[in-house]
Amino acid sequence: MANNSDWKIQLDAVIAAHNTRHAVRNKLVSHSTMDARKKGLFRAFRTLRALGFQPAPANLSGAHIDVLMRYWTADPQLQTCLGDASAKLQLRTHPYSAAYIQQQLSFLRVYASWIGKPGLVRDAERYTSHPQLVRRTYCAQIDKGWTGNGIDVDASIRAVAKIDLYVAAQLRMAMAFGLRRKEAVMFRPHVAEVPDFALPSSCAAISRYVSFLRIKRGTKGGRLRFAAIRTQAQRDALACAKEIARFPHSDLGRPGLTLKQSLDLFSNVVRTAGLTKKTLGVTPHGLRHEFAGDLYFDIASVQPPVRGNDPCVDPDTMRAAYHEVARQLGHNRPQISNAYLGSPCLHVTEHRSDDEPCAISTCGEP
């Protein structure tokens, strides 16, 4: 069965039978997660075959995982491991990013449980003698916002508006309130505004803000959050959104399109406008980073670490700002803000000895 030419059919059958389920929890996963899993698994099996291995999907083994990890990390010992195997794939000279490797390994870990082999896939660090290659960094070390990368946000969105007004409105809301792509597409501007006195008791509002946006449709896990309306630019973005969504319960998706079609339209228009990592060094998600940095500045009155602020900021003020940024981004833990604002530890280390503890929490997972 090692040379089974029907491996694609077999793999597709396994994926179809299990791919809707969360890896750990008893719930369904999103379409984007299912798509990413499927692409990652097919890519892994194609890579194995290109390296001279032809396992049937049900016969994936620890040795195959080891080969993939050696390939992804550009391990010079891979050629020795391959031996006389006929590889059709040029071996890498540089490793993939830690984030990519961890993601691909997570797909394989889930897949192993589907075929009755839980525990087959080990922690990434167990596969390499250089663990730093597979350790993800959850702290922003460079500013991913558009402005910080020399992009004129308003001019760029105006250019998008010439292609599609709906996508332009979605980008404005992403900039103004930190919305993700799906959240922006599904956002209903006419019914979103909430005065501070109407916030749930579990959501302690900062006293300086008198109005918030209720954001739930399209959020990860359906988690409700509230983003403060702080500036006239935010008001203008909301007013534009209301013009685009003409009826009280209309969202910002183009009428007549399904959610998937609207999400694809967003991606296609952004790509057409050249707002990509490859072309300009930014992505639409960079607007969420921009929102986070601007909100931090509004609260702390200094720029965040990723924008090069003075690390000698009052620790209590910094903690409060990190917590509020995380909350308005839709996260419960303030450490998440490190992925957007940078970690103060990275900057403070220049001013302290190696054994001096850092006053602010260390990096957390976004």
Automatic annotation (TrEMBL):
| Keyword Amino-acid biosynthesis among record annotations | no
Q: What is this protein called?
A: Integrase
An MF annotation (GO) of this entry: DNA binding
Task: Report keywords, A-Z.
Answer: DNA recombination
The answer to keyword Protein biosynthesis applying to this record is no
**Any one GO biological process:** DNA recombination
- This protein's source sits in the domain of life called Bacteria
What are the leading ranks of the lineage?
A: Bacteria, Pseudomonadati, Pseudomonadota, Betaproteobacteria, Burkholderiales
Which organism was this protein described from? Duganella vulcania
Stretches assigned to the Integrase catalytic domain: 156-293
Under Pfam families, the record lists: Integrase_1
